[in-house]
Amino acid sequence: xxxxxxxxxxxxxxxxxxxxxxxxxxxxxxxxxxxxxxxxxxxxxxxxxxxxxxxxxxxxxxxxxxxxxxxxxxxxxxxxxxxxxxxxxxxxxxxxxxxxxxxxxxxxxxxxxxxxxxxxxxxxxxxxxxxxxxxxxxxxxxxxxxxxxxxxxxxxxxxxxxxxxxxxxxxxxxxxxxxxxxxxxxxxxxxxxxxxxxxxxxxxxxxxxxxxxxxxxxxxxxxxxxxxxxxxxxxxxxxxxxxxxxxxxxxxxxxxxxxxxxxxxxxxxxxxxxxxxxxxxxxxxxxxxxxxxxxxxxxxxxxxx
Length: 305
Known about the structure:
The protein has helices at residues 3-13, 32-39, 41-55, 65-84, 94-116, 118-121, 123-128, 135-161, 174-198, 201-215, 223-232, 238-244, 247-259, 272-297, 301-304. It is mostly helical. The protein is globular, with a radius of gyration of 22 Å.
């Protein structure tokens, strides 16, 4: 045994034993689960970096794919939907409108899908050592956040070039939109990451639902088009309220207000801020419920893996 190993074992020998109950909680941790995760922030940072490096390992372009993928997706939708199917008609500066919605949707999709498979992907660590299991979904969300920041930089540059940015005050809508999408991404990601350990079909079902979710939000079409459909088919008025209750819809609309200066009040539902506040409160309640479910289910993660 070399001197470095001896010193490490000596430090470990002086560490007190900590009790972990069946729900995965350490009784001696101040601040509860949040304090425990905060105490492992270095590990969380390491897992985020590992996730990012693993995405494009051995690729020639590396992190450039973070920009290339969304740009190709944007061009596909812009040409096929915007020009061939004429979705761009009636939407001024359609390129920025489309790219802003795609940027936020991609962030939500990456958060949820990455968190869903995070426990399975780290099964070796789960079975060998104790650490707060929530750290794995959080690491996936952190990796998605890095990708989002890169794409957000491209969006801002494009909006400046096309002179599409609204007044600086309107750009403050960026913050409630991001907070709302983070709350719901965390709530859904925590819940699905636990369920996926017991039912592996969850990750495939999640991929399908996320694909459909993009069409349930005004990413490639406008709020005005939804209103036209409701009026054309004489649908009840509550249909619009139900559509606007989707947190992804609200977050995308807020993102449009922040980066798409061509919009008018007719392009958004009334009381958008209040709707986002209510959706955020419901999302926080869902985070609490999701974490309770996660805590109850994590006791058998190692056995299921």
